[in-house]
Amino acid sequence: MTNKQQIARWRLILGSESEQAFGEMGASPLSQEEFLMDSALAAIYGGPEESFQQKGGAGKGPSAPHIARWMGDLRSLFDPEIVAVVQNDAIERKGLKQLLLEPELLEGLAPDLNLASTLLMLKDQIPKKSKEAARQFIRRIVEEINRLLEQDVRRAVTAALNRRAHSPLPSASAIDFPCTIRRNLRNYHPELGTIIPERVWFFDRSSRMNRWHIILDIDQSGSMGESIFYSSVMACILASMTAVKTHVVAFDTQIMDLTPLCTDPVDLLFGFQMGGGTDIAKSLAYCQNLVEEPAKTIFFLISDLEEGGNRAALLRLMEEMKAAGVTVVTMLAIADGGKPYYDAQTAQRIADMGIPCFACSPERLPEVLERVLKGQSLESLAKQNDNKKPS
Description:
Layout: H1 3-14, H2 19-24, H3 32-45, H4 64-77, H5 80-94, H6 103-108, H7 113-121, H8 131-161, E1 166-167, H9 177-183, E2 188-189, E3 194-195, E4 202-203, E5 212-219, H10 225-239, E6 244-251, E7 255-257, H11 265-271, H12 280-288, E8 297-302, H13 311-324, E9 327-334, H14 344-352, E10 357-360, H15 365-373, H16 379-384
Parallel strand pairs: 5-6, 5-8, 8-9, 9-10
Antiparallel strand pairs: 1-4, 2-3, 6-7
Helix pairs in contact: 3-4, 3-5, 8-10, 8-15, 10-11, 12-13
């Protein structure tokens, strides 16, 4: 970096108030691009005179078109990571929550999980004219997460359960054609132009009665925004698979069974009521009643474990489910990075029961699911995580 570039960077950091001082030191004026950067940053980090107000216009509120232009400048001048930081600072420092509800602004925003979480928290205040724009903003993020997870989640479930998928009992209506063709390719008859199978594989018609039951119990407090997004997408992928039965429960101090919304991850996300207190024990008691076959049930508690209810009851119910034969896993956070925030004492008590309790990045979710379905230990996977974990 040249001396001129270093001076320009310091000028951008210190703001327009330093313009005269830098000029007296012989610094060159900002370039046009640097001036645009300075203006974009000053709108958020400048003094009270800096604002999004339309100059010379009537009214007391910020101008949505002016904000939209500011967003456009921001995204053209800075890397996506910086854009996300400044957008979030704009919300907090300049009171832009209402502006997030303007359709023209939502359409121009770069997809960002933190912004999406804020939007979900404000969903009850979204005016009718903005509802579709809000859904489309959320859907763009959902589609990105779906591309990240879907193929691997489906592969994980198939790999874990495929050995149980077939039956020796023949039934024309239960033929597994893909498997039968794949395993008989060597028996292709050139003259007939077809495969003559030596063996036909049949689906186990009772598999739907004996399939695994996966329960996702999701903390919907405000700090769990990213976890809610990833959990919701994974829940909808699982719900679309006949190999497993899926339940989704959301909780704060109240319980909401969101299973009927699992056909669409956006509908599911808008079913959450983010914010409020936390009563984990209450949700555990509800989920305990959903268990039909403990040995075929996998229970995921996704929470920061900041219990506002009965902590002793929380621990007792976790222990009861494990003792009954339910496979219990505690996910402290499902986020792209950073050290998760959680109640370390409660997490350690859960880990001491022999219940896996650790943070997990989104990319590892399919692997966690496959190992659980196969009955394998999660201890080695937990140790691979860079963050400190109780187990």
